Amino acid sequence: MLGTGLVKGFVETARNFVGSYTDEARLTTVEYPEERIPLKEATRQFPFLVFDGTDPHAGLRCVACQICEKECPPQCIYIEKSKDKKPDYVGKPQFYPARFDIDVSVCMSCQICVEVCPFEAIKMDTEFELSNTDRFGGLLLDKAELAKSNEHYQKIHPTEAKEVDDRLAAEKAKAEAKARADAEAKAKAAAEAKAKAATLASGPGGTTGAV
């Protein structure tokens, strides 16, 4: 029948129009900022630095290797390496960033810094309300502003954070087991050397041998 397709189109349009007011699943208008839609786990905005424990300095995972600084396409990361070292999560002395700045006015949220970091030290945050009246200094975040706890990471990216935590825990356990094995091997070698020295000292010609 001539015009059937046109009529069907009008009916579909009318159905969608009425449904936009009556179907609860389609009432998408949110009274922001009083109401907020929960962010998806894959949401990413700008990078932050992860630290373990409660001390942002002592627990900071970053070792100032500067790989992220070199790989950053817009060159918005600036790092100064420390002169001294502090223990990392497995107890190995590592350098740390004396200064770590990110200019989020330049950052393009590409996540390359996250992908190249070998220490799981930098991740993408979900915070997007960063507007302020200072377009330069106000958007240049320093180490203190960038450092956020592992609990924050677990809250915004729970699946990814669990995988990272499990991997780091396994690496730490492996390192501790190796350290114990090395310590036991050294203690055994020392004991054997001591026993050998005692045997030589008490044998023929030794200072404690029979006269």
Structure, described:
The protein contains six helices and eight strands; from the N terminus they run αβαββββαββαβαα. It is α+β, with helices and mostly antiparallel strands. It is elongated.
Descriptive key words:
211 residues, alpha+beta, Alpha-Beta Plaits, three-stranded mixed sheet, three-stranded antiparallel sheet, 6 helices, 8 strands
> What name is given to the CATH topology of one domain?
Alpha-Beta Plaits
CA radius of gyration is: 30 Å
Sheet with the most strands: spatial strand order: 6-1-8
- CA-CA gap between termini: 129 Å
Report the sheet-strand fraction.
Answer: 5-15%
Spans of at least 5 consecutive residues whose pLDDT stays below 50 are none
Overall SS class? alpha+beta
> What's the architecture of one domain, going by CATH?
2-Layer Sandwich
Count of alpha/pi helices: 6
Mean pLDDT: 89
Describe the protein's topology.
Layout: H1 4-22, E1 47-51, H2 67-71, E2 77-81, E3 86-87, E4 93-94, E5 97-103, H3 112-116, E6 122-124, E7 140-141, H4 143-146, E8 147-149, H5 150-156, H6 158-202
Parallel strand pairs: 1-8
Antiparallel strand pairs: 1-6, 2-5, 3-4, 5-7
Helix pairs in contact: 5-6
Summarize this, please?
The chain is built from six helices and eight strands, in the order αβαββββαββαβαα. With 211 residues, the protein is α+β, with helices and mostly antiparallel strands. The chain has a domain at 47-165: 2-Layer Sandwich (Alpha-Beta Plaits).
